Inverse folding.
């Protein structure tokens, strides 16, 4: 998918420049200490005699070891595992009517971005394919300052108030007594908390769906989650919800596959993003907004300030306003991906907050966390965090200050510095908070408009296809099956029954228990101790029964391109070379990637006597790392009957509903696998190089999976 020749060329030119620079530097690039002293021996420490003790005087050894000892910084308390890339954002359509943010006004502005994707619960070194929410953080380096859209790949959240965030995270993280399990929610403390928090039910439906196990970071939607505000030059406000829609569609893997990927390649998503960008297949998302006039704040059945609710696209359509392209991998993981500091409070004039109590808490948390993680209030000076807008203020000093501030004036107002730096008037771009009217009593309460915990969970469940519903049921059976405390399982079933009785009954069946007839007390309704006994979670009738946008399979953004999909060719010596070549050419011209798999690395020799380069051996390759599989023709292919990994490869492909194509002798291999029960996802031809075969294969692969097969397996 070469989407921009120009960007490819830029990227290539930059790389060439780097190489040339390195070449010229290499001539006079000596190893030095951090003080610039050239090092003569980087292999031996200074000793009293060649077999004697090391000398404290060895400043070279001490500097090297001391630096090494301090190379790690604390990993993020959440979202520790991340993968990131550089790119740009382009506006299709001016939003001037709604916001004065310049990067959303002028369609000629190309705004640089840095985007970090993450899992939430796992440590920095954990697997990519954990069942989890994915972070989707975008830093826009705008001319008016940095704007961070720090969202997730799901449009709602587990809790309504920031007060519960430490509880949620303590519950989902590995249990504190034995530090297990890593990166997973399938354990007692998580479900204990969830089963006592009815407000989490909508998000639980998303987290148990295939959204929590994406095929690729490039195939996920992104959401700002909270309702924000756009504010225009007339100081008029519109509520806004942000959406990122991936050009490659929204796709997931299946849970059995996810678990196997974790074993075969725990960097599956990281590698996929890296390679796509290296190969010039730049991932793209369109930015969409749902806009709601200030006057409509109370028009809906749900509260716009409640982060456990979404605004159905059927009620407020998503307006596509721009496009983001990721076209450059970071040069250094630590310097960029690890040290980048996002903050929902990094806004620019024209974008403002609402009183969503989860967002309000976040506005405190992110700067605070950078202080302990990055270690200094000067984290804005780290290159990846620097604004491209001019920056002047009277903040000074602190650990590791980079800027050398000159002059004697570091206060405002001043006359000695000529009054600089000046405050900016509104028409000079000064940030002014939206002047929302507030007339209230100081209370520690949850609004009753937040009390509906189930109806949007039901809306989500009802919007799924039966296949997707089945995946949710299986995910819940898996997660609760790992929970050891019976009371927690039962309590969760009680909450699930408020979403959909059949769902609860089906999950219960898998657990070998029944759904309790009443919800156990006491239960948390998001209120304090005094009110807890009085308030019940409510169910509000929704304006719509089902929303296609919530289903990955019905979703409009589902794309049927096979661009960047990976196809395994199961080969051996004696394979028919033209069978390989023709299918490879057809797939590659549709944008897919092909890997030749064989019993050994190096090269194999085709029937025609030509050498074919092998990409992976059967020891390394696995079906779960590919989207589809092809078995070419040729006498030699029949030898694969004796390779145990080949049958396992095809069986897994079949089990995970992938498309399998075979021609000539390749079709015989299917007879030793489950794919012998041919369905329309198993595409075969007796002829070598059959054009119909490749055409059908490409067309079918565009559907991502043959989900109907699940009934069979
Ligand atoms: Fe958060 C990181 C997204 C609620 C406190 N959060 C973090 C990241 C993402 C989100 C994507 C990773 C940023 C990166 O890549 O560096 N968080 C969310 C979303 C939320 C949310 C979409 C709800 C809608 N978060 C939330 C709450 C709090 C935090 C309610 C605390 C009151 N989040 C943090 C944090 C982190 C963080 C502890 C850890 C590392 C960091 O901030 O920079 O401050």
């Amino acid at each position: 998918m070469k989407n921009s020749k120009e960007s490819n060329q830029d990227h290539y030119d930059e790389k060439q420049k780097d190489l040339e620079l390195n070449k010229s530097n290499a001539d006079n690039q000596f190893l030095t200490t951090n003080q610039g002293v050239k090092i003569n021996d980087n292999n031996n420490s200074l000793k009293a005699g060649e077999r004697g003790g090391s000398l404290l005087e060895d400043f070279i050894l001490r500097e090297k070891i001391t630096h090494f000892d301090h190379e790690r910084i604390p990993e993020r308390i959440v979202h520790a595992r991340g993968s990131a890339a550089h790119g740009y954002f382009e506006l299709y359509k001016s939003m001037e009517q709604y916001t004065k943010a310049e990067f959303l006004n002028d369609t000629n502005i190309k705004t640089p971005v840095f985007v970090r994707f993450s899992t939430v619960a796992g440590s920095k070194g954990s697997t990519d394919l954990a069942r989890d929410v994915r972070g989707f953080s975008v830093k826009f380096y705008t001319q008016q300052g940095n704007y961070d859209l720090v969202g997730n790949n799901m449009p709602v959240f587990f809790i309504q108030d920031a007060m519960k965030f430490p509880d949620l995270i303590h519950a989902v993280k590995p249990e504190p007594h034995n530090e297990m399990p890593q990166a997973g929610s399938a354990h007692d403390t998580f479900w204990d908390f969830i089963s006592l928090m009815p407000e989490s039910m909508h998000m639980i439906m998303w987290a148990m769906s295939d959204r929590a196990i994406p095929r690729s970071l490039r195939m996920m939607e992104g959401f700002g989650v909270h309702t924000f505000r756009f504010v225009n030059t007339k100081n008029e406000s519109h509520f806004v919800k942000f959406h990122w829609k991936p050009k490659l569609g929204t796709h997931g893997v299946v849970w059995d596959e996810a678990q196997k990927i974790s074993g075969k390649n725990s960097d599956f998503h990281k590698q996929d993003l890296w390679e796509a960008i290296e190969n010039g297949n730049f991932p793209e998302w369109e930015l969409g907004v749902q806009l709601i006039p200030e006057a409509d704040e109370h028009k809906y059945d749900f509260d716009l300030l409640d982060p456990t609710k979404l605004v159905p696209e059927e009620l407020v359509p998503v307006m596509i306003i721009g496009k983001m392209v990721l076209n450059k991998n970071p040069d250094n993981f630590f310097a960029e991906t690890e040290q980048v500091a996002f903050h929902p409070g990094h806004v620019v004039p024209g974008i403002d907050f609402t009183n969503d109590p989860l967002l309000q808490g976040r506005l405190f948390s992110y700067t605070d966390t950078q202080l302990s993680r990055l270690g200094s209030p000067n984290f804005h000076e780290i290159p990846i965090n620097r604004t491209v807008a001019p920056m002047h203020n009277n903040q000074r000093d602190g650990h590791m200050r980079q800027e050398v501030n000159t002059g004697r004036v570091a206060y405002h107002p001043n006359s000695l510095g000529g009054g600089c730096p000046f405050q900016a008037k509104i028409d000079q771009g000064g940030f002014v908070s939206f002047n929302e009217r507030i007339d209230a009593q100081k209370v520690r309460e949850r609004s009753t408009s937040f009390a509906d915990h189930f109806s949007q969970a039901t809306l989500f469940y009802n919007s799924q296809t039966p296949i997707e519903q089945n995946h949710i049921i299986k995910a819940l059976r898996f997660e609760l099956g790992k929970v050891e405390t019976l009371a927690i399982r039962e309590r969760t079933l009680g909450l699930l029954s408020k979403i959909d009785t059949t769902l609860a009954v089906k999950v219960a069946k898998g657990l070998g228990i029944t759904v309790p007839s009443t919800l156990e007390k006491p239960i948390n309704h998001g209120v304090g101790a005094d009110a807890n006994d009085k308030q019940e979670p409510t169910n509000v009738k929704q304006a719509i029964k089902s929303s296609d946008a919530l289903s990955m399979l019905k979703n409009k953004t589902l794309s049927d391109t096979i661009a960047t999909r990976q196809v395994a060719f199961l080969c051996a010596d004696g394979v028919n070379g033209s069978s390989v070549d023709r299918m490879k050419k057809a797939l590659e011209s549709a944008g897919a990637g092909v890997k030749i798999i064989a019993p050994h690395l190096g090269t194999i020799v085709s029937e025609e006597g030509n050498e074919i380069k092998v990409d992976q051996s059967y020891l390394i390759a696995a079906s779960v790392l590919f989207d589809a599989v092809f078995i070419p023709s040729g006498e030699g292919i029949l030898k694969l009957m004796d390779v145990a990994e080949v049958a396992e490869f095809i069986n897994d492909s079949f089990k995970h509903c992938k498309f399998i194509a075979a021609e000539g002798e390749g079709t015989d291999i299917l007879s030793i696998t489950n794919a012998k029960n041919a369905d329309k996802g198993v595409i075969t031809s007796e002829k070598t190089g059959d054009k119909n075969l490749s055409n059908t294969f490409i067309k079918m692969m565009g559907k991502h999976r043959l989900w109907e097969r699940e009934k069979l397996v």
Q: What stands out?
A: Residues 476 and 507 are 7 Å apart (CA to CA). Residues 76-79, 82, 116, 118, 135, 137, 150-152, 157, 162, 165, 225-226, 307, 340-342, 358, 361-362, 365-366, 369 surround HDD (CB under 6 Å). The radius of gyration is 28 Å. The chain has 18 helices and 18 strands.
